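Tutorial sheet, problem 5. The three components below are modelled jointly, 852 residues in total.
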Amino acid sequence: MMPKLTRWWPHAVFIFAAFGTPVMLSGNRYFAFIAGITLISVLWSTGMNLLYGYTGLMPMMFGGIAGVSAYSTIGLVAVGWSFWPAMLVGSLGASFIGVILGLPSLRLRGFYFTLCSLVIQTVITLGFVYFVNLTNGDTGISQIPLPGLPGGGRLSGLAYDLVLAALAVIGVILLTLIVNSPLGRRLVAIREDDGLAETLGINVTRQKLFAFFIGSMFASIGGALYAPYVGFISPRSFDVLMSLNIWLMVAFGGRGTIWGPVIGAVLLAPIPFLLQDYYTIKDVVYGLLIIGVIVLLPAGIAGGFKRAPRAAKPAALKPEPAR
Amino acid sequence: MSNSTIIIALSTITTGIMLGTIFSLVAVGVTIVYGSIWMPNAANGQFFLLAALFAWSASVSWGLHPAVAALLVIGISVPFSWLLEILLVRRFYDVPNRNISYFVLTLGITQVLTGIFSVTYGVWSDQFQLPPIVKGVTFLGPFPIANNRLAAMLIAALLLAALFALLRYHRYGRALRAVFQNREAAALRGVDVRAIYRMSFILGNGVIFAGGVLFAFAYAVDLTVAWTMSVTAFAIMIIGGPGSVVGALIVGMVFGFTQAIVSIFASPTIAAFSYLGAMLVILLFRPSGLFAR
Amino acid sequence: MSLLDARDVSMRFGGVVALRNVNVKQEANETLGMIGPNGSGKTTFVNAMTGHLKSVQGEILFDGSPILGRRPFAIAGAGLARTYQAVRVFGQLTVHENVEAALVDAARPLDTASLAETAAWLNLDNRLDAPAGTLTLYEQRRLELLMRLVQRPKLLLLDEPVGGLSSHEVRAMIGLLSELKARCTIFIIEHTMKVIRELADRVVVLLAGEKIADGPPGDILADKRVIENYLGNVDA
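Model answer (structure tokens):
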């Protein structure tokens, strides 16, 4: 069931802001870069929102999946692939790996699932550090080449920012469509009470798998584009803290709403840059925010938007007028 | 058997006991807190490190006698835990799915402490070790072992025994086990459940702090110890069975020996992989753990 | 072919035998009741039937097909629905959203007109936008029924449907359930005879995991073994 056309106005505003901001900031590369990182964070937090906000899963391996995609894409490009097919294959591969790794743990409830995915994330990070031949270990990979364009030349500067904006917009639209679809209804039921959902005939494991795959795609595509944009990655870029911080954007902004996590990303993503000189303080700030969110704002700052009044009375329970 | 073989064997055994008792101590601390208030303490490694670093500061920077420093640190853990309990932990006691809230809360605490450590204690490769309480070396056959390390081992073992006795025979221990099993029933029998919660949190953390201090007597500590310890302690708790002190003890010793043996052949990373692998296997096939009631 | 045919159903939890060789049969349109004291295994039996328990022994045929060992969602899809002893709805979602959740994977969903009629019959059609958690207990019980009815189940297991209701509400619920019989075959599990006596065509009595009696309510009330072990001690 598509929401009425008038309910797409926030998306229109977002499209304007997403594309407009890089254009406005194109004179200052530093600010434009912050905007770009924020756009990737929007994509990531939207993916995390699908998993945490709408399905109730807290996948601590989100960062690891983004990392697998980033490293794979770089690897494929290094052996001669063009960036875009490499990104596609890298993302699909990482998502499949994510599903395979996550599948056995989807049967676990609540805390055990989170713990399991935390362990998987730790294994992935250890893997990044250990398999130095593939990833250059803790030293990281620098001077990552920018994506090549079909007509020749490379994606950079404003054009790159606009590509990121497009992906963020597509991500949010996709989430909106999912939320309003039967899949969305199933996921919400699962989030609220997965035992009851199963009793009502919903194949909980399969739906979680779908959500997991789609969420992983958000993580992967973001990861593949993050690497050339920043120019440097290391295992630290995609570790537990990264997953936790993306989760924080969702929890802080308001899980279970489309826009809460977007707001969360916009507010939180620039923080490391503002604290540039005090980069170690970043950990403390994020940690305190996490504690604060857990203690004070369980529904996030957009929690109030969740019960927005509906214009139309739900039609399903009234007899349809004769056409 | 040649001398070198004996030395390797004795070294492995003593390392195994040393690591095993420390692992067990920390794991017991974590499992007590989880069994009573349902709090999986992801920050246990940071507490462990905090104890070690603070003891180091007290003895090296302030010049206190190491034994005094150790007792001071363990003593401070009490108001520290008490404060945490009042500010952050208490509010969740009646929340149904609090284990996941606590888990994320402690992840936040982990992040805060990680940040503080990197600012105050510098680069990750720095090493810290406490000056010895007891000097000299004892010989077990051809194998030399520092008396200090021996002392740490003994104290750790004694602490474990004391804990075990406390939980089995003392009134508090029985009340704690009653709460582990069924808090409603325990409350009906007159147990002050919230007081038990508070005491468990303080006791559990105190034990972790003790573990950190003892470890710093025996080995040099660097900042990565925190994550490694957290992972290990969680793995032990999950495999042994959340809430099972016996499980934490047994699995802790097994892990200690495993690490001692593995270090002969391979890097510690392999050991970490194997803990994580074992934890995953248990989570997926027998989530209640090996020694669950 | 019986609608439900459970044969020699047995189940142990660790060292405790929760169910021992329980045999239950139910025909379509026959209202079956199951009573027994608390702890006699009634809910265990329901959980065994609906796929919520592992290592259940025996055989359970539903509409001719074996369902033992299948996942709960598949059993629900086959037309066997159940409610919970402690009322269970999606508290944070509205009544409307609760019904949507029940419809999304319903194998044979009710059409829109019948849906509206059912909601009206259950007096919930004016509460559609209320979060389910704000409903009274009796309203939530009715919501549970609505959520099952929109799936048009072949058999509805009701686990202690009057638990927690005031005596006035219990009367009303009994009235509702007798009307419910016309829409759907029901199997009521209760621990007092009062509800069962008025509604059931046949009653199965469970004691410590074993079936000790099986027959019309009148026979059960007169059964010596039942009176000795159960009715004599609990107020019926």
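Marking note: Chain A touches chain C through 24 residues (CB under 8 Å). Full credit if you identified this.
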